[in-house]
Description:
By secondary structure, chain A is mainly α. Chain A has helices at about 5-15, 30-35, 40-55, 70-85. The longest helix of chain A is centred in the last third of the chain and has 17 residues, at about 70-85.
Amino acid sequence: MTKETIKQVVLDIISDIAPDEDLSVVKPEVRLRDQLSLDSMDFLDIVMELRKKHGIEVPEADYVQLASLDSCADYLLPKFLAKASK
Amino acid sequence: MSSKPRIVITGLGLTAPNGNSLQEFRANLLAGKARIAEIEVRHMGKHPAGVCDFDATKWQKRKEIRNGTRVGSISIFCAREALGSSELDWDKVDKSRVGVYLGITEHGNVETENEIFNIAQFGNDTKYWTHHHNPRTVANNPAGEVTMNMGITGPHYTIGAACAAGNAGLIQAAQMLQLGEVDLAFAGGVSESIHTFGIFAGFKNQGALGAHADPNKASRPFDKNRNGIVISEGGAIYILERLDDALARGAPIIAEIAGWCINSDATDAVLPNPERQAECVQMALKRAGMKPQDIQIVSTHATATALGDIQECTALRSVFAGCPETKINNTKSFIGHCMGAAGALELAGNIPSFEDNWVHPTINIDELDPECDMPGLVINQPVKVERVNAILNNSFGMLGINSALIVKKYGVA
């Protein structure tokens, strides 16, 4: 599991919840909300899909960590690695 | 109602199991073409059902479809199609003066069942319950989705009226226009009920779920061997305006709302009461300033249940005895029971009769039930009549709600 893999995981989730968006131009360092039409319900969808598909929990206090693809990767990598080591 | 503003229909959009436009729907009704599918119902196997095949992406982004409800998509499609038929310059319409009034039989069963099924895959842990549940299941959902899609900022809500809901939505809109609450109304009825197993199971355990080896013959009101309801989805949304406003903008006037009544049986939760139904029809006639002889088409509610059909026939015989020119038909024989949409769709399919003077039949009658025999019943083949100036649209529902709506050809005294 790498940060690039995690970015793709997040992009795959976004492609499901925001199917009208062009994800080929997403810049990893820019806030997702600044480049895609995503609202608070959509971020809750990202949290839910991480929980359902990958068994990853994101506490409410950490939602801010999902702001950009880069921050997602930084925040989620330890969680995915911990999950894989179990 | 002479002292109140006259209300006219100036737009109409629909989706039915056998048509996604009034033209297609009407053509199939005159051609005797039913369209009932066989679908897999959760926990229950295959059952006949009326399924709509409109293209939701015509008017919605895929994200809207994903986050919203099926009935929201039905509502948006119908409202947008109605707008397209109305010749309104939408950009110039004051959206704060537009109301949305949609009749529903029920709402929220589909979304709730889906989530119960969803969390069952996760040991019934409610942390997997979607945060979309509440906006999807609030009772105003279908009307609210229309306002968000179309930028309407006037009032919106649904009218819960069991299977009388289609008429109830139209009546509510007419009343709000007469009160001056709005200048333009999107109104009618909508349903997504084929996606909830609970409705199927409820009817089945009530002994009222229709079945037949040929799905297209499963819905057969008035037939001696009818065995119950075929559940369908669908929608029909009309644009209503005060006549003066419609004339001022040169609107295409499809028909005029002439009179209506909603009353209650106050007797039984499921068994209709023909006396109250007859009173409902009589009151609608009185308010329209009409006699039974003035009605050329009665669009029946009959759902193909053993007793319900007979009860409605009893009511109609008591009102229309001595009206040899009044024709009687039924649309559920083609498309099943579209629940909250039924009344609005069934009226829509008859409205072109004002122009073409054809009366579509009730189909699937192989052997007429003698207890459902009525002189004006149009059986299996359409009939041409001299004129159609007024249509009575019956729509009844559980808990004893009755509705009768009369529309007349515009320009006829």
